[in-house]
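Attaching the record inline, Q. Sequence:
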Amino acid sequence: MEIKKNNSGNSWINAGSVIIVLLLFSIMAASNVTAPIYELYALKYHFGPFIITDIFAIYVLMLIPSLLFWGQYSDKHGRKLPIAIGVIMELIGLLSFLFARNVYMLFLARAFMGLASGAIAGPGSALLFNYNRRAGAVLTSIGTSAGTATGPLIGGIMAQYLPYPFRLVYLLSIILVLLPAMAIYPIKDISTKNPKLILHFPSIDREVIRPFLLSSFVAFGAWSITAFFMSLAPVYIIKLSGLNSIAIGGIIVFLMLGIASIFQIISLKFKIQNSMFSGMVFIIFAIVFILIAIIRNSLYIFIAGTLLAGIGQGFAFTGATREIKAIAPPEKTGDMLANYYIIIYTGVGLPVILLGLLDKIIGLLQGIIFYGLAFIAFSMVMGFLLIREDFKD
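Structure, as predicted:
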C-alpha cells in the first residue's frame, strides 16, 4: 500500500511524516552515538584531541560531495533511492566501528557515515518538505536535533554501564536504523517530467540569495556550537567534573540538544527573524558562560552555558530552516537544501578542526577561549545583519 503525501495543509503529523522523521532521527543518532566513546578509543589507541577533531573532519569531507550529488539526483529521479543508498552506507559505517581494530578503522567508519548523511540529509528533508509543506521545516529540525542528542546519550550510558562498550552500542544502532528504513518504501515519491541529470554546483536564484545566505550562516553558527559539544566538550567535562564517567559526556550533549529540540517547537510562536535573532543572542550568552566556567573551573556555570546553548541552537536552527522552506521552490528543494547543509556541515567541521589545531599550538583550554571570543564576534555580526533584513513567514 502506498502512503500518499499530505496536501490538505491541515495536519501536522501523519504516517508518512512520522516515518521520515524517525529515519532522520535514527541516522543522526547512529552517526553520533560514538561522541562520548572517543575518550575510550583515545585510551585504547593512544591518541589525543587532535585525532578526535580529524575523525570529525573526515565525516564532513565525505558528506559534502555526497550532498552535492544526491541532492541534484533526488530532484530529478526521486528521493527514495538516495535514502536507500545512504542507509546502506550508514550500516557499513556501523559495521566498521563494530569490527574496528585500529584508529584507521575509526576514520573509515566516519567516512562511510559522512557519505550516508550526505545521501539522506538533503533528499530526506526534501521528501519531508514535499510530503508535508506545513510542518516540514520544524519536523526536519526536531528529527535532526533529537537524533543528534539521543545518540551520545545512548552511547555514553551503554559504554559506562554495560559490557562490551565497543560492540553493543553499534548492534543497537544497526537495529535503530533498519526499522524506519524498511518503512520508507510505501511512501509516495516525487515524479518529474525532466529526468535528465546534469551535474552542477547547486545554484541559488538571485532574488533569494541574501535571505538564503543569512539563514544558512545562522544555521552555521547553531551547529558550530553543537560541534563543540559533540567533539571536545565530553572530554573537557570529564576533566572539569573530576568524574571518571563516559556517561556524563553523553548526558551533557543530550542536555544541550534536548533543550534545543524543545525550543525548536517553542520557536514556532516567533516570527522567523525574531527566532534567528533570539538564537544568536542566546548563543552569545552561552559562550560567555562557558568561557567563565573554564576560567573559574566551575561545572555548574558550564551546565548553565549548556542550557543557554541549547536554547540558542533551537531558536536559530529552526528559524533558519523555516526560512529555507519558505523561499525554496519545490523543483529546486534538493539543490537549495544541499547548499544549506553544506554550509551547516562546514560549521560542524571547520571550527572543530580549528580547535584541534589550537589544542596542539596553545593547549585545549586556551584554544576554547580563543574560539569562543571569535565566535562571539561572529554571532554579533550575524545579529546585526538579521536586524536589517526582512524574512518570509
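Residues 202 and 335 are 5 Å apart (CA to CA). The two ends are 35 Å apart (CA to CA).

More tomorrow.
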